[in-house]
Amino acid sequence: MEPERVSVSRYGRFPHAFPFLIAMASVLYLAAENPHEGLTLSNLRDPLVLALLYVFVVWATLSLFVKDRLRRSLVTTAVGVTPLVSGYLFGWLRGQAIEPALRGAIETGALVALMLIGTLVILRVRWLPNAAKFLNIFSSLLVLLTVPALLSLGTPEDDTSREHVSEDAGGAKPDIYLVVLDAYSGNESLIESYEFDNSAIHDSLQERGFKFPTRSRSNYTTTFLSVGSMLNRGYVNDLAEQTGPDYRDRTALYRYLEFNRTTRDLKGLGYEFVYVGSSYPPMASNRLADVQYSEIPSREFERLWTRMTVLPAVLAMVCPLTSRCVSSALHFGPESAAETEDRLAFLNSSVNRQGPKFVYAHWLLPHGPFRFAQDCRPIAPSWTTGDMMIENDSLARRRYVDQLVCTNRKILEFVDAVRATASDSSVIILQADHGDGRFPGGRPSSLEAADPDQIRERFDVFAAYAGPSGIGDSLALQRTPVNVMRTLVRVLFGFSEPPSEDRHFWSGRDRPLYLVSVDIDSLFNAATEP
Fold it and tell me: I need a surface site. Which of 125, 234, 359, 387 has the fewest CB within 10 A?
Protein backbone atom coordinates (compact mmCIF):
# COMPACT_ATOMS: atom_id res chain seq x y z
CA MET A 1 0.00 0.00 0.00
CA GLU A 2 2.93 2.34 0.65
CA PRO A 3 3.85 2.79 -3.07
CA GLU A 4 0.25 3.70 -3.83
CA ARG A 5 0.24 6.43 -1.13
CA VAL A 6 3.45 7.87 -2.55
CA SER A 7 1.93 7.91 -6.01
CA VAL A 8 -1.18 9.75 -4.82
CA SER A 9 0.89 12.27 -2.91
CA ARG A 10 3.02 13.05 -5.94
CA TYR A 11 0.35 13.17 -8.67
CA GLY A 12 -2.96 13.47 -6.83
CA ARG A 13 -3.36 17.14 -7.68
CA PHE A 14 -3.30 16.37 -11.40
CA PRO A 15 -6.11 14.69 -13.38
CA HIS A 16 -5.69 11.56 -15.41
CA ALA A 17 -5.40 12.17 -19.13
CA PHE A 18 -8.35 10.06 -20.30
CA PRO A 19 -11.22 12.58 -19.67
CA PHE A 20 -9.41 15.16 -21.78
CA LEU A 21 -8.41 12.68 -24.47
CA ILE A 22 -12.00 11.44 -24.79
CA ALA A 23 -13.21 15.07 -25.04
CA MET A 24 -10.67 15.63 -27.82
CA ALA A 25 -11.82 12.46 -29.58
CA SER A 26 -15.43 13.76 -29.63
CA VAL A 27 -14.22 16.63 -31.80
CA LEU A 28 -11.60 14.82 -33.85
CA TYR A 29 -13.87 11.96 -34.90
CA LEU A 30 -16.43 14.42 -36.23
CA ALA A 31 -13.73 15.97 -38.41
CA ALA A 32 -12.24 12.60 -39.38
CA GLU A 33 -15.60 11.42 -40.73
CA ASN A 34 -15.44 14.13 -43.42
CA PRO A 35 -11.77 14.80 -44.22
CA HIS A 36 -12.57 16.26 -47.66
CA GLU A 37 -15.25 18.71 -46.53
CA GLY A 38 -12.95 21.73 -46.75
CA LEU A 39 -11.89 21.61 -43.10
CA THR A 40 -8.63 23.04 -41.86
CA LEU A 41 -6.90 22.78 -38.50
CA SER A 42 -8.27 26.25 -37.69
CA ASN A 43 -11.78 24.78 -37.80
CA LEU A 44 -10.83 22.41 -34.98
CA ARG A 45 -9.30 25.05 -32.71
CA ASP A 46 -12.40 26.52 -31.07
CA PRO A 47 -14.24 23.20 -30.53
CA LEU A 48 -11.12 21.62 -29.02
CA VAL A 49 -10.45 24.58 -26.72
CA LEU A 50 -14.07 24.73 -25.56
CA ALA A 51 -14.30 20.97 -24.99
CA LEU A 52 -11.05 20.82 -23.01
CA LEU A 53 -11.90 23.94 -21.02
CA TYR A 54 -15.32 22.56 -20.09
CA VAL A 55 -13.85 19.24 -18.93
CA PHE A 56 -11.20 21.06 -16.89
CA VAL A 57 -13.83 23.20 -15.16
CA VAL A 58 -15.80 20.05 -14.29
CA TRP A 59 -12.67 18.34 -12.95
CA ALA A 60 -11.66 21.40 -10.89
CA THR A 61 -15.15 21.67 -9.42
CA LEU A 62 -15.24 17.98 -8.53
CA SER A 63 -11.92 18.32 -6.72
CA LEU A 64 -13.89 20.02 -3.93
CA PHE A 65 -16.03 16.92 -3.39
CA VAL A 66 -14.22 13.84 -4.71
CA LYS A 67 -10.70 13.38 -3.36
CA ASP A 68 -9.83 10.05 -4.94
CA ARG A 69 -7.95 10.83 -8.14
CA LEU A 70 -9.28 7.94 -10.22
CA ARG A 71 -12.90 8.37 -9.16
CA ARG A 72 -12.70 12.10 -9.76
CA SER A 73 -11.41 11.54 -13.30
CA LEU A 74 -14.12 8.96 -13.97
CA VAL A 75 -16.87 11.27 -12.74
CA THR A 76 -15.33 14.05 -14.83
CA THR A 77 -15.72 11.81 -17.86
CA ALA A 78 -19.34 11.02 -17.01
CA VAL A 79 -20.32 14.61 -16.24
CA GLY A 80 -17.96 16.47 -18.56
CA VAL A 81 -17.84 14.38 -21.73
CA THR A 82 -21.45 13.18 -21.91
CA PRO A 83 -22.91 16.65 -22.71
CA LEU A 84 -20.37 16.96 -25.53
CA VAL A 85 -21.78 13.90 -27.29
CA SER A 86 -25.48 14.43 -26.62
CA GLY A 87 -26.18 14.68 -30.35
CA TYR A 88 -24.79 11.18 -30.87
CA LEU A 89 -26.74 9.77 -27.94
CA PHE A 90 -30.05 11.44 -28.71
CA GLY A 91 -29.90 12.14 -32.44
CA TRP A 92 -32.84 9.80 -32.94
CA LEU A 93 -34.91 11.93 -30.55
CA ARG A 94 -34.13 15.14 -32.43
CA GLY A 95 -35.65 13.63 -35.53
CA GLN A 96 -39.00 12.95 -33.88
CA ALA A 97 -42.05 15.12 -34.55
CA ILE A 98 -42.16 16.56 -31.04
CA GLU A 99 -42.55 20.15 -29.93
CA PRO A 100 -38.99 21.58 -29.77
CA ALA A 101 -39.30 22.76 -26.15
CA LEU A 102 -40.60 19.35 -25.02
CA ARG A 103 -37.98 17.53 -27.08
CA GLY A 104 -35.26 19.69 -25.53
CA ALA A 105 -36.58 19.01 -22.03
CA ILE A 106 -36.68 15.25 -22.66
CA GLU A 107 -33.12 15.20 -24.01
CA THR A 108 -31.76 17.39 -21.21
CA GLY A 109 -33.55 15.36 -18.54
CA ALA A 110 -32.35 12.07 -19.98
CA LEU A 111 -28.80 13.38 -20.17
CA VAL A 112 -28.86 14.57 -16.54
CA ALA A 113 -30.27 11.20 -15.44
CA LEU A 114 -27.55 9.41 -17.39
CA MET A 115 -24.84 11.53 -15.73
CA LEU A 116 -26.26 10.95 -12.24
CA ILE A 117 -26.53 7.20 -12.72
CA GLY A 118 -22.99 7.09 -14.09
CA THR A 119 -21.69 9.12 -11.15
CA LEU A 120 -23.39 6.88 -8.58
CA VAL A 121 -22.01 3.75 -10.22
CA ILE A 122 -18.51 5.22 -10.36
CA LEU A 123 -18.56 6.21 -6.69
CA ARG A 124 -19.85 2.82 -5.51
CA VAL A 125 -17.75 0.45 -7.64
CA ARG A 126 -14.37 -0.71 -6.35
CA TRP A 127 -11.94 0.12 -9.15
CA LEU A 128 -8.79 -1.86 -9.90
CA PRO A 129 -5.48 0.04 -9.53
CA ASN A 130 -4.66 -0.44 -13.23
CA ALA A 131 -8.00 0.96 -14.46
CA ALA A 132 -6.52 4.42 -14.97
CA LYS A 133 -3.61 3.06 -17.01
CA PHE A 134 -5.99 1.10 -19.22
CA LEU A 135 -8.28 4.10 -19.78
CA ASN A 136 -5.34 6.38 -20.57
CA ILE A 137 -4.02 3.94 -23.17
CA PHE A 138 -7.48 3.31 -24.61
CA SER A 139 -8.33 7.03 -24.94
CA SER A 140 -4.91 7.70 -26.47
CA LEU A 141 -5.65 5.10 -29.13
CA LEU A 142 -9.02 6.78 -29.81
CA VAL A 143 -7.22 10.01 -30.59
CA LEU A 144 -4.44 8.35 -32.60
CA LEU A 145 -6.94 6.54 -34.82
CA THR A 146 -8.16 9.89 -36.14
CA VAL A 147 -4.70 11.03 -37.23
CA PRO A 148 -4.63 9.43 -40.72
CA ALA A 149 -7.90 11.10 -41.69
CA LEU A 150 -6.90 14.42 -40.11
CA LEU A 151 -3.66 14.49 -42.12
CA SER A 152 -5.75 14.96 -45.26
CA LEU A 153 -7.56 18.05 -43.96
CA GLY A 154 -7.53 20.80 -46.53
CA THR A 155 -6.74 18.42 -49.40
CA PRO A 156 -8.32 19.94 -52.53
CA GLU A 157 -11.11 18.05 -54.22
CA ASP A 158 -10.20 16.58 -57.59
CA ASP A 159 -12.40 18.11 -60.28
CA THR A 160 -12.62 15.14 -62.60
CA SER A 161 -16.35 14.93 -63.35
CA ARG A 162 -17.04 15.45 -67.03
CA GLU A 163 -19.80 12.93 -67.54
CA HIS A 164 -22.46 15.50 -68.49
CA VAL A 165 -20.45 17.48 -71.04
CA SER A 166 -21.93 17.36 -74.54
CA GLU A 167 -19.69 16.55 -77.48
CA ASP A 168 -21.70 19.04 -79.54
CA ALA A 169 -21.01 21.96 -77.22
CA GLY A 170 -18.47 23.69 -79.44
CA GLY A 171 -18.52 27.21 -80.84
CA ALA A 172 -18.66 30.54 -79.08
CA LYS A 173 -19.44 30.38 -75.39
CA PRO A 174 -21.11 33.40 -73.80
CA ASP A 175 -20.25 34.52 -70.29
CA ILE A 176 -22.84 33.27 -67.80
CA TYR A 177 -23.80 35.25 -64.70
CA LEU A 178 -25.99 33.61 -62.07
CA VAL A 179 -27.13 35.81 -59.18
CA VAL A 180 -29.11 34.05 -56.46
CA LEU A 181 -31.26 36.59 -54.62
CA ASP A 182 -32.05 35.29 -51.15
CA ALA A 183 -35.66 35.68 -49.92
CA TYR A 184 -36.75 37.94 -52.80
CA SER A 185 -40.55 37.64 -52.92
CA GLY A 186 -42.54 37.88 -56.15
CA ASN A 187 -44.67 40.89 -56.98
CA GLU A 188 -47.98 39.15 -56.21
CA SER A 189 -46.94 38.66 -52.59
CA LEU A 190 -45.34 42.08 -52.32
CA ILE A 191 -48.62 43.70 -53.29
CA GLU A 192 -50.69 41.41 -51.06
CA SER A 193 -48.52 41.37 -47.91
CA TYR A 194 -46.52 44.61 -48.11
CA GLU A 195 -48.77 46.89 -50.18
CA PHE A 196 -45.74 47.49 -52.40
CA ASP A 197 -45.79 47.30 -56.19
CA ASN A 198 -42.40 46.19 -57.48
CA SER A 199 -43.18 46.91 -61.14
CA ALA A 200 -40.43 49.54 -61.37
CA ILE A 201 -37.62 46.96 -61.35
CA HIS A 202 -39.49 44.87 -63.93
CA ASP A 203 -39.82 47.91 -66.19
CA SER A 204 -36.15 48.84 -65.79
CA LEU A 205 -34.97 45.32 -66.55
CA GLN A 206 -37.37 44.98 -69.45
CA GLU A 207 -35.80 48.08 -70.99
CA ARG A 208 -32.49 46.22 -70.72
CA GLY A 209 -33.85 43.21 -72.59
CA PHE A 210 -34.82 40.96 -69.69
CA LYS A 211 -37.64 38.43 -69.84
CA PHE A 212 -39.80 37.27 -66.95
CA PRO A 213 -41.53 33.95 -66.29
CA THR A 214 -45.25 33.96 -65.65
CA ARG A 215 -46.01 33.38 -61.95
CA SER A 216 -42.51 32.21 -61.01
CA ARG A 217 -42.49 29.77 -58.08
CA SER A 218 -39.74 28.14 -56.03
CA ASN A 219 -39.44 24.38 -55.67
CA TYR A 220 -38.32 24.47 -52.03
CA THR A 221 -38.58 26.83 -49.07
CA THR A 222 -34.92 26.74 -47.99
CA THR A 223 -31.84 28.06 -49.76
CA PHE A 224 -29.67 24.94 -49.81
CA LEU A 225 -32.47 22.80 -51.25
CA SER A 226 -33.67 25.36 -53.79
CA VAL A 227 -30.24 26.29 -55.12
CA GLY A 228 -28.96 22.72 -54.89
CA SER A 229 -31.81 21.44 -57.05
CA MET A 230 -31.35 24.27 -59.56
CA LEU A 231 -27.60 23.71 -60.00
CA ASN A 232 -27.90 19.92 -60.06
CA ARG A 233 -30.80 20.20 -62.49
CA GLY A 234 -33.07 17.83 -60.60
CA TYR A 235 -34.99 17.36 -57.38
CA VAL A 236 -33.05 16.50 -54.22
CA ASN A 237 -35.79 14.56 -52.43
CA ASP A 238 -34.10 11.17 -52.71
CA LEU A 239 -30.88 12.53 -51.24
CA ALA A 240 -32.78 14.32 -48.46
CA GLU A 241 -34.52 11.05 -47.57
CA GLN A 242 -31.18 9.25 -47.40
CA THR A 243 -29.69 11.79 -45.01
CA GLY A 244 -32.76 11.79 -42.76
CA PRO A 245 -34.70 14.63 -41.16
CA ASP A 246 -32.12 15.52 -38.51
CA TYR A 247 -30.50 18.94 -38.72
CA ARG A 248 -26.99 17.54 -38.32
CA ASP A 249 -27.39 15.39 -41.43
CA ARG A 250 -27.25 18.29 -43.88
CA THR A 251 -23.61 17.58 -44.77
CA ALA A 252 -24.37 15.44 -47.83
CA LEU A 253 -26.76 18.06 -49.21
CA TYR A 254 -24.29 20.87 -48.57
CA ARG A 255 -21.69 18.91 -50.52
CA TYR A 256 -24.27 18.30 -53.25
CA LEU A 257 -24.82 22.07 -53.40
CA GLU A 258 -21.11 22.88 -53.62
CA PHE A 259 -19.97 20.17 -56.05
CA ASN A 260 -22.94 20.57 -58.35
CA ARG A 261 -23.41 19.28 -61.90
CA THR A 262 -23.73 22.68 -63.58
CA THR A 263 -20.46 24.06 -62.23
CA ARG A 264 -18.59 20.88 -63.09
CA ASP A 265 -20.06 20.79 -66.61
CA LEU A 266 -19.25 24.42 -67.34
CA LYS A 267 -15.68 23.98 -66.08
CA GLY A 268 -15.44 20.95 -68.35
CA LEU A 269 -16.50 23.15 -71.26
CA GLY A 270 -13.62 25.53 -70.56
CA TYR A 271 -15.37 28.09 -68.37
CA GLU A 272 -13.50 29.89 -65.62
CA PHE A 273 -15.52 29.63 -62.40
CA VAL A 274 -15.78 32.88 -60.42
CA TYR A 275 -17.57 32.50 -57.10
CA VAL A 276 -18.93 35.23 -54.84
CA GLY A 277 -20.36 33.61 -51.73
CA SER A 278 -22.09 35.04 -48.67
CA SER A 279 -21.93 34.54 -44.92
CA TYR A 280 -24.44 31.67 -45.21
CA PRO A 281 -22.13 28.74 -44.25
CA PRO A 282 -22.94 26.28 -47.08
CA MET A 283 -22.29 29.06 -49.60
CA ALA A 284 -19.42 30.90 -47.92
CA SER A 285 -16.84 29.46 -50.31
CA ASN A 286 -16.57 26.89 -53.08
CA ARG A 287 -13.67 24.50 -53.60
CA LEU A 288 -14.33 24.28 -57.34
CA ALA A 289 -13.79 28.01 -57.78
CA ASP A 290 -10.92 29.29 -59.92
CA VAL A 291 -11.43 32.74 -58.40
CA GLN A 292 -13.56 33.67 -55.40
CA TYR A 293 -14.32 36.56 -53.10
CA SER A 294 -12.68 35.01 -50.06
CA GLU A 295 -10.62 31.96 -49.23
CA ILE A 296 -11.90 32.06 -45.65
CA PRO A 297 -13.30 28.59 -44.95
CA SER A 298 -16.85 28.03 -43.87
CA ARG A 299 -17.46 27.81 -40.12
CA GLU A 300 -20.06 25.11 -40.63
CA PHE A 301 -17.92 22.52 -38.82
CA GLU A 302 -17.93 24.59 -35.64
CA ARG A 303 -21.69 24.92 -35.82
CA LEU A 304 -22.06 21.23 -36.59
CA TRP A 305 -19.98 20.37 -33.53
CA THR A 306 -22.09 22.70 -31.40
CA ARG A 307 -25.22 20.91 -32.56
CA MET A 308 -23.69 17.58 -31.46
CA THR A 309 -23.54 18.87 -27.87
CA VAL A 310 -26.44 19.33 -25.47
CA LEU A 311 -26.62 23.07 -26.23
CA PRO A 312 -29.39 22.84 -28.90
CA ALA A 313 -31.58 20.86 -26.50
CA VAL A 314 -31.05 23.39 -23.71
CA LEU A 315 -31.81 26.31 -26.01
CA ALA A 316 -34.92 24.62 -27.37
CA MET A 317 -36.14 24.18 -23.82
CA VAL A 318 -35.18 27.62 -22.50
CA CYS A 319 -35.92 29.89 -25.48
CA PRO A 320 -39.74 29.66 -25.25
CA LEU A 321 -39.46 30.85 -21.65
CA THR A 322 -37.47 33.98 -22.53
CA SER A 323 -38.32 37.15 -24.41
CA ARG A 324 -35.30 36.72 -26.64
CA CYS A 325 -33.97 33.50 -28.09
CA VAL A 326 -30.31 33.11 -28.93
CA SER A 327 -30.74 29.89 -30.91
CA SER A 328 -30.03 31.86 -34.08
CA ALA A 329 -26.39 31.69 -32.99
CA LEU A 330 -26.52 28.05 -34.07
CA HIS A 331 -27.68 29.12 -37.54
CA PHE A 332 -25.17 31.58 -38.97
CA GLY A 333 -23.71 35.00 -38.33
CA PRO A 334 -25.04 37.35 -41.02
CA GLU A 335 -22.71 39.66 -42.88
CA SER A 336 -22.54 43.37 -42.20
CA ALA A 337 -23.57 46.08 -44.65
CA ALA A 338 -19.89 46.82 -45.33
CA GLU A 339 -19.14 43.19 -46.11
CA THR A 340 -22.14 42.99 -48.43
CA GLU A 341 -20.87 46.08 -50.28
CA ASP A 342 -17.42 44.49 -50.62
CA ARG A 343 -18.89 41.31 -52.08
CA LEU A 344 -20.97 43.26 -54.59
CA ALA A 345 -17.95 45.34 -55.61
CA PHE A 346 -15.99 42.13 -56.20
CA LEU A 347 -18.85 40.79 -58.31
CA ASN A 348 -19.03 43.95 -60.42
CA SER A 349 -15.26 43.83 -60.97
CA SER A 350 -15.48 40.25 -62.24
CA VAL A 351 -17.03 41.47 -65.52
CA ASN A 352 -13.59 42.64 -66.61
CA ARG A 353 -12.13 39.11 -66.58
CA GLN A 354 -11.53 37.39 -69.90
CA GLY A 355 -14.11 34.75 -70.82
CA PRO A 356 -15.66 32.42 -71.12
CA LYS A 357 -16.53 32.60 -67.42
CA PHE A 358 -19.28 31.36 -65.15
CA VAL A 359 -19.85 33.93 -62.42
CA TYR A 360 -22.03 32.61 -59.61
CA ALA A 361 -23.01 34.88 -56.71
CA HIS A 362 -25.21 34.42 -53.67
CA TRP A 363 -26.64 37.73 -52.43
CA LEU A 364 -27.89 37.72 -48.86
CA LEU A 365 -30.38 40.31 -50.09
CA PRO A 366 -33.13 41.21 -49.49
CA HIS A 367 -32.83 38.54 -46.79
CA GLY A 368 -32.49 39.83 -43.24
CA PRO A 369 -31.03 41.21 -41.17
CA PHE A 370 -32.23 44.54 -42.50
CA ARG A 371 -29.10 46.63 -42.85
CA PHE A 372 -29.86 48.97 -45.78
CA ALA A 373 -32.24 51.88 -46.27
CA GLN A 374 -33.94 52.39 -49.63
CA ASP A 375 -31.08 54.58 -50.85
CA CYS A 376 -28.62 51.85 -49.69
CA ARG A 377 -27.37 53.81 -46.71
CA PRO A 378 -26.27 51.35 -43.97
CA ILE A 379 -28.59 51.22 -40.95
CA ALA A 380 -28.41 49.40 -37.62
CA PRO A 381 -29.10 45.73 -38.49
CA SER A 382 -32.31 44.12 -37.28
CA TRP A 383 -34.03 40.78 -37.88
CA THR A 384 -37.64 39.96 -38.65
CA THR A 385 -37.84 38.45 -35.18
CA GLY A 386 -40.87 37.11 -33.42
CA ASP A 387 -40.87 40.16 -31.15
CA MET A 388 -40.79 42.57 -34.08
CA MET A 389 -43.65 40.82 -35.86
CA ILE A 390 -45.81 40.81 -32.74
CA GLU A 391 -45.00 44.30 -31.48
CA ASN A 392 -44.51 46.18 -34.73
CA ASP A 393 -45.38 44.17 -37.79
CA SER A 394 -45.61 47.28 -39.95
CA LEU A 395 -42.00 48.13 -39.09
CA ALA A 396 -40.82 44.66 -40.12
CA ARG A 397 -42.60 44.92 -43.46
CA ARG A 398 -41.31 48.45 -44.09
CA ARG A 399 -37.72 47.40 -43.34
CA TYR A 400 -38.01 44.51 -45.79
CA VAL A 401 -39.35 46.78 -48.54
CA ASP A 402 -36.57 49.29 -47.87
CA GLN A 403 -33.91 46.62 -48.27
CA LEU A 404 -35.65 45.24 -51.35
CA VAL A 405 -35.61 48.68 -53.01
CA CYS A 406 -31.89 48.90 -52.26
CA THR A 407 -31.46 45.42 -53.73
CA ASN A 408 -33.10 46.63 -56.92
CA ARG A 409 -30.58 49.45 -57.15
CA LYS A 410 -27.74 46.97 -56.75
CA ILE A 411 -29.23 44.70 -59.42
CA LEU A 412 -29.32 47.52 -61.98
CA GLU A 413 -25.76 48.56 -61.11
CA PHE A 414 -24.59 45.00 -61.70
CA VAL A 415 -26.52 44.59 -64.97
CA ASP A 416 -25.19 47.91 -66.28
CA ALA A 417 -21.64 46.87 -65.36
CA VAL A 418 -22.03 43.67 -67.40
CA ARG A 419 -23.59 45.49 -70.33
CA ALA A 420 -20.90 48.17 -70.33
CA THR A 421 -18.31 45.44 -70.87
CA ALA A 422 -20.10 42.83 -72.96
CA SER A 423 -23.19 44.56 -74.36
CA ASP A 424 -25.98 41.97 -74.53
CA SER A 425 -23.77 38.99 -75.40
CA SER A 426 -23.76 37.57 -71.85
CA VAL A 427 -26.35 35.37 -70.19
CA ILE A 428 -27.66 36.96 -66.98
CA ILE A 429 -29.83 34.92 -64.63
CA LEU A 430 -31.43 36.74 -61.69
CA GLN A 431 -33.13 34.07 -59.59
CA ALA A 432 -34.62 34.14 -56.10
CA ASP A 433 -34.22 30.90 -54.15
CA HIS A 434 -37.47 31.44 -52.21
CA GLY A 435 -39.71 34.26 -51.04
CA ASP A 436 -39.60 35.87 -47.62
CA GLY A 437 -42.73 35.07 -45.61
CA ARG A 438 -41.83 37.15 -42.53
CA PHE A 439 -40.61 34.22 -40.42
CA PRO A 440 -38.47 34.67 -37.28
CA GLY A 441 -34.84 34.90 -38.30
CA GLY A 442 -35.83 34.29 -41.92
CA ARG A 443 -36.45 30.55 -41.36
CA PRO A 444 -39.89 29.08 -42.02
CA SER A 445 -41.81 27.19 -39.36
CA SER A 446 -43.69 23.96 -39.94
CA LEU A 447 -46.34 23.95 -42.63
CA GLU A 448 -49.09 23.64 -40.01
CA ALA A 449 -47.86 26.73 -38.15
CA ALA A 450 -47.57 28.97 -41.24
CA ASP A 451 -50.37 31.24 -42.40
CA PRO A 452 -51.67 30.79 -45.98
CA ASP A 453 -50.24 34.15 -47.05
CA GLN A 454 -46.83 33.16 -45.61
CA ILE A 455 -46.92 29.90 -47.54
CA ARG A 456 -47.80 31.67 -50.77
CA GLU A 457 -45.10 34.28 -50.29
CA ARG A 458 -42.41 31.69 -49.51
CA PHE A 459 -43.03 30.03 -52.90
CA ASP A 460 -43.63 33.27 -54.85
CA VAL A 461 -40.25 34.39 -56.20
CA PHE A 462 -38.62 37.04 -58.36
CA ALA A 463 -36.86 35.89 -61.54
CA ALA A 464 -35.52 37.66 -64.65
CA TYR A 465 -33.38 36.39 -67.53
CA ALA A 466 -31.45 37.89 -70.42
CA GLY A 467 -29.01 36.64 -73.04
CA PRO A 468 -28.16 36.36 -76.72
CA SER A 469 -30.07 34.38 -79.35
CA GLY A 470 -33.34 34.36 -77.45
CA ILE A 471 -31.98 32.51 -74.41
CA GLY A 472 -33.92 34.88 -72.17
CA ASP A 473 -37.18 33.89 -73.84
CA SER A 474 -36.37 30.19 -73.44
CA LEU A 475 -35.57 30.60 -69.75
CA ALA A 476 -38.71 32.66 -69.16
CA LEU A 477 -40.85 29.74 -70.31
CA GLN A 478 -39.88 27.97 -67.08
CA ARG A 479 -41.65 28.71 -63.79
CA THR A 480 -39.34 27.06 -61.27
CA PRO A 481 -35.58 27.12 -60.53
CA VAL A 482 -35.16 23.37 -61.08
CA ASN A 483 -35.67 23.93 -64.83
CA VAL A 484 -33.56 27.06 -65.26
CA MET A 485 -30.15 25.46 -65.66
CA ARG A 486 -31.66 22.48 -67.49
CA THR A 487 -32.93 24.92 -70.10
CA LEU A 488 -29.62 26.78 -70.20
CA VAL A 489 -27.48 23.74 -70.96
CA ARG A 490 -30.03 22.38 -73.43
CA VAL A 491 -30.34 25.60 -75.46
CA LEU A 492 -26.68 26.69 -75.32
CA PHE A 493 -24.85 23.37 -75.43
CA GLY A 494 -27.29 20.78 -76.76
CA PHE A 495 -27.67 18.74 -73.56
CA SER A 496 -30.57 16.31 -73.70
CA GLU A 497 -32.44 17.60 -70.66
CA PRO A 498 -36.12 18.39 -71.23
CA PRO A 499 -37.98 20.33 -68.52
CA SER A 500 -38.98 18.47 -65.39
CA GLU A 501 -42.46 18.61 -63.90
CA ASP A 502 -42.86 21.62 -61.59
CA ARG A 503 -43.17 20.41 -58.00
CA HIS A 504 -43.11 22.25 -54.68
CA PHE A 505 -42.05 21.10 -51.22
CA TRP A 506 -42.25 22.73 -47.79
CA SER A 507 -39.70 22.17 -45.04
CA GLY A 508 -39.56 23.95 -41.67
CA ARG A 509 -36.68 25.14 -39.51
CA ASP A 510 -37.04 22.28 -37.00
CA ARG A 511 -37.08 19.54 -39.66
CA PRO A 512 -35.54 21.12 -42.79
CA LEU A 513 -35.13 17.78 -44.55
CA TYR A 514 -38.69 16.63 -43.94
CA LEU A 515 -40.27 17.58 -47.27
CA VAL A 516 -44.02 18.03 -47.63
CA SER A 517 -45.53 18.33 -51.10
CA VAL A 518 -47.61 21.50 -51.59
CA ASP A 519 -50.13 22.29 -54.33
CA ILE A 520 -49.09 25.92 -54.52
CA ASP A 521 -51.21 26.79 -57.57
CA SER A 522 -54.37 25.80 -55.71
CA LEU A 523 -53.35 28.03 -52.81
CA PHE A 524 -52.88 31.01 -55.12
CA ASN A 525 -56.10 30.31 -56.98
CA ALA A 526 -58.02 30.07 -53.71
CA ALA A 527 -56.60 33.42 -52.63
CA THR A 528 -57.93 35.14 -55.77
CA GLU A 529 -61.40 33.61 -55.66
CA PRO A 530 -64.13 36.02 -54.48
Answer: 125
